[in-house]
Amino acid sequence: MRISRPRSVLLAGAVAVTLSATALPAAFAAPSSTAVISEVYGGGGNSGATLTRDFVELANAGSAAYDLSGFSVQYLPGAPSAGSQWQVSPLTGAVAPGGRYLVAQAAGTGGTVGLPAPDATGTVAMAAASGTVALVSGTAPLTCKTAADCASDTRVVDLVGYGSAVVREGSGPATGASATASVARAASLADTDDNAADLSAGAPTPVNAAGETSGGEGPGDPDNPTEPGTVRVHDIQGTTRVSPLDGQAVTGVPGVVTAVRTTGSRGFWIQDPSPDADPRTSEGVLVYTGSAAPTVSVGDSVLVSGTVDEYYPSATTQSVTEITAPRTTVLSSGNALPAPVVLDAASVPGGYVPSADGGSIDALPLEPAKYALDLYESLEGTRVETADTRVTGATSSYGEVWVTVEPKQNPTRRGGTLYASYTDQNTGRIKVMSLDSTRPVPVANVGDVLSGTTTGVLDYDSFGGYSLQATRLGTLTDRHLKREVTRKQKRDELAVSTYNVENLDALDDQGKFDTLAKGVAVNLASPDIVSLEEIQDDNGAVNDGTVGSEATLKRFTDAIVAAGGPRYSWRYVAPQDGKDGGEPGGNIRNVFLFNPARVSFVDRAGGDATTAVKAVRTKKGVTLSASPARISPLDESWSDSRKPLVGEFRFRGEPVFVIGNHFTSKGGDQPLHGRYQAPARSSETKRVKQAAQVNTFVKSLLAADKSARVVTLGDLNDFAFSPTMSALTAGKALKPLISTLPANERYSYVYEGNSQTLDHILTSPGIRRFDYDVVHINAEFADQASDHDPQIVRVRADGSGHGHHGHH
C-alpha cells in the first residue's frame, strides 16, 4: 500500500527528487547471525547489462524462518547531500532457513534477461557503482546520514555500503560494483560487520524464495512473457474496492492500451477486451510507471507483469488499483479499443455510497446498480463516455472541470447543482481532465455545456474522487453566464454586505485589488457597511511580527474609489501575532468598511485582541463595552482561529450592531467520496462551539434590548442545514436569511461541482423588514477574484413589515 503522491506530481508534471547520504563506523551493531543482505545489484537495465532490473537479495543463515512482516529494505545514494532521503521498499512474508528472498527494484531500458519472480518489488533506481542498502525492522524511512548515526539506530538489521558509499559497515564499502557486477557475500553468509571484507564483486546471481534463478528454473522469464499468464484484469480488480491480489506479483496480464498519461503520475491504462460476466469487476487497470515515461501507444495489445498495489492518494481517500514496477511486452499495435461504458442519468443509480457506520467501505462487496460510487469503482480504469454534460464547477487552474451526467439533479437557477443535505448527495457529478496536452479542458463557467461526447478512462484521486481522464473532449457551448449586479439601496435602507476576499494583503497584484473593488463598488452597489473576511497583515505570509493592515486597506479603499465607489473608512482589531490561524505569517482578520457619508461608527476604547466585548444596558437601550471589539477572544473555541469582530454603528440616528465572523475551516474533514462512510466532520465540533459563543453574545444584546438590531454575517464555513447553524440560531436569536431564498438560489460557493452555502447573513428579531441577495460574481466563474460570492442585506430604517429577498 502506498499513500499520497503530492498534487504537484499528480497534476503538474513529473517531479525529479534528488536524494543523497553519508558513513558507518568500524563497529556496527552486533553482526546478524540470521537475516543478512546477501547480494546488491544496481546496474539492472544499464548499458551493457544482461539483467533488466536492479535487485537486493536477502538470505537467512539461521535454522528457523525469519519473519519479514513490517520490515523493509531501504536505499540511500552513496554520496549524500543535505536533502538526501532513504527510499523504502516494504517487505512481506519470510525468509526460509538457509533460503533466499528477492527484492526487485527499478528496471532500466537495457538488458535482455528478467529476474526470477521477485518476492517483493520496489521502485528504487539504485546506482550501479555506489550506494547503501539497509534491511530495516520497520517501514518508516531511516533518517541517519552518517555511519555512526546508522550504527546507533536499532532498527537497522543489516547494512551494505558499496562503491564509494559514505554509509557502510566497517573499514570501507564493498568494492567492484558496476553495470555488470553485483556485490555478494560468500556462500557461508559470513557477516563480520565489515562490508569490504564480507562482500566481493562478481556476476549478478539473483535467487528468489523458490530457488529460481534468472533465465533458469521456473516458468520462463516473468518480466518478458510472450504468452498470457493465468491472471486477468478482473481478477486483479475483484468485487470490492481493494484487489484480492494486493501486494502480489502478476505475470503476463493481457489487455489493450486505452490511454496513456505522460505527465505527472505517469502510466497507462489497459483493458481486457474479453470481460467476465460480473458487473462488480472492472476490466481496466492503471499500469503505473512512476517517473519513467510510458513506452506503449493506445491500441497496443500488451502483456504486463509487475506487482499489484492499492495506492491511497491520502489516508482518508479510496484507493487506486495499480500494477507497479511493470515490465510490458507489446504483442501487436493498432487494435480496436473496447466500447466505452455510457454514463448518464439512466445508468447512474440514485444512491451515493454504502455506509459502514463511519468505518472503511474497502471490504464491502460492490453494488454498482445501487450506489453511484460503487458503479464508478466497478468502472475504475475502464473506458467511459458522457454526452452533452452541463458544467457544475468552473474550470480550475489545474485544468479540471466538473460536470453532471444527471442534469435534473438539484439544479440551481444559474446552471449548477445544489448541495441540499448530508443525505442527498449529487450522484451525477464527475470531474473531467484532459490526457491530451495539445487539447486542454476548455475554460468553462457553471451552466456551460460540454457538447457532444467526452470519452476517456475513469480514474480516482484525492481532489474530488472519480475523474474522467479524457482522450476525447466534447466542445464547449458557452451559455454566457453573467456576473450579477444588485440594486442600489434606497435612502432609508441600510445596506450591509459580507465578502471573503481570499487572503488579501498589500503585496497582492493590483489586478486583484481592482477586481475585488469593482465587486464592491459596482456589483454590490456600494453598501453602507462591508464586513470583510481574509484581510491579512500588510506583508501577507511574510512571518516577521507585522499585524497591522493599514497599507492593505488603503490600497483596497483607493481601488474602490477608482471603481466609482465611496471613500470607505475602516475598523478592525489587530490579532496577536500568529494566534488566528490561516496562512502562517498572514495574521488573517475580519474588517469593517463603512461609508461615513451614510453611516457612522461608534468608537469606544478598550477593544483589543484579548478583551471580551460585553453588552451594556443603558436607559437608551443597549451599547457595547468597546467598539470595535471581539467576542470571547480567549475562549478555547477560538484558539488558532479568526475571532468575531463586533462594531456599533448608527444609521439615521438608530444603533445597529454588526458581528463579522469567519469560523474555522472544514480542513481535516473526511471527503464525501472517501473510504470512510459516512464521513466524519471532525472540524464541525469547533464551529458549533464558536456558533454557541456568538449566539450567547447576541442573546446578551437582546436581553438588554429585545428590539436591538443585530446583523451577524460572514464566512461561517458551514451549511444552512448544519449543526453549526442550529447552534448559531438557538432560541430564535437570529434568522438565517439564506433560508428566505428559493431553494435553487441558496448558495455562495462551489466545491467539487456542488453549489453550496458557507457564507451567511443572519438578523435579529428587531429587523423585520429587509431585502436580501446573494450576488453571484465569483464562485461560478473560471476567472474569479475570490472563491466566495458576496451577500448583501438592505434593512429598512423603520424596521417594520416583513422580509423578502432581492431580484436582479
Helix and strand arrangement:
Blueprint: E1 2-3, H1 7-11, E2 35-41, E3 53-60, E4 66-67, E5 72-77, E6 87-90, E7 94-95, E8 100-107, E9 120-121, E10 131-136, H2 147-151, E11 156-162, E12 182-185, H3 195-198, E13 199-202, H4 233-237, E14 249-261, E15 266-271, E16 284-290, E17 301-312, E18 320-332, E19 341-342, H5 372-378, E20 383-393, E21 401-404, E22 429-434, E23 449-461, E24 465-472, E25 475-477, E26 493-504, H6 510-523, E27 529-535, H7 550-562, E28 569-571, E29 589-594, E30 600-602, E31 615-618, E32 621-624, E33 629-630, E34 645-651, E35 654-662, H8 684-704, E36 710-715, H9 723-729, E37 735-736, E38 749-751, E39 754-756, E40 759-763, E41 770-774, E42 791-796, E43 804-805
Parallel strand pairs: 1-17, 8-9, 16-18, 19-20, 22-24, 26-27, 35-36, 41-43
Antiparallel strand pairs: 2-3, 2-12, 3-8, 4-7, 5-6, 5-10, 10-11, 12-13, 14-15, 14-17, 15-16, 17-18, 20-21, 20-23, 21-22, 23-24, 23-25, 26-42, 27-29, 28-29, 30-34, 31-32, 33-34, 34-35, 36-40, 37-40, 38-39, 41-42
Explain what the structure shows:
This protein is mainly β and 808 residues long. It contains 9 helices and 43 strands.
Measured on Cα atoms, how large is the radius of gyration? 32 Å
CA(first)-CA(last) distance = 53 Å
- Report the β-strand fraction as a percent range: 25-35%
SS elements, strand count:
43
Globally, the shape reads elongated
Number of H/I helices? 9
The class by helix and strand makeup works out as mainly beta
Q: How can the largest sheet be summarized?
A: 7 strands, mixed
Strand order of the largest sheet: 28-29-27-26-42-41-43
**Helix content range of the residues, please?**
10-25%
